[in-house]
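EI: anyone free to look at a 163-residue chain?
SC: sure, send it
EI:
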Amino acid sequence: MDTFFSVFPLLLGMPESSTAASGGAAGGQLVSLLVTFGLIIVIFYFLIIRPQSKKQKETQKMLAAVKKGDRVVTVGGLRGTVHAVKDETIILRVDDNVKMEFNRSAVASILASAEGEQAPVAKEKPARGKAKGGDGSSGNGTKAEEGSDAAEAADTEGGSTKH
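SC: here you go
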């Protein structure tokens, strides 16, 4: 039994010469090591594992709730209305005569439910800078772009502009 405990400090990485002098210090290092690893595991759980599992549960719940008539967005950015729901796939109506079949897992979010209730969508932050007049653009274009926009608008109305 005494030989087992004499090898134990070697497992902790302590040199042989310090084992006789430090006696009880080896147990303190072991506790310190275990506490450090325990804290790392707890930090990983609360910062990585738990949020990921919550997000995965929400995604599974959303995918299970997809039904005919919902407006959805796929992971590729394609928007459409659910035309039919199968076990593993959904059929999206993208345009009047265009239907595409996707895996259920390809649905990124539901924009609007079939009952007409609006699904929560993250709002984009408005761009910084001055907004142009009521034409709906953000006003982040250069002066050359703004001038060409005005010229195109005048051309479509039948007027002409000088460049």
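EI: Confidence is low (pLDDT under 50) at residues 121-126, 130-134, 136-163.
SC: 👍
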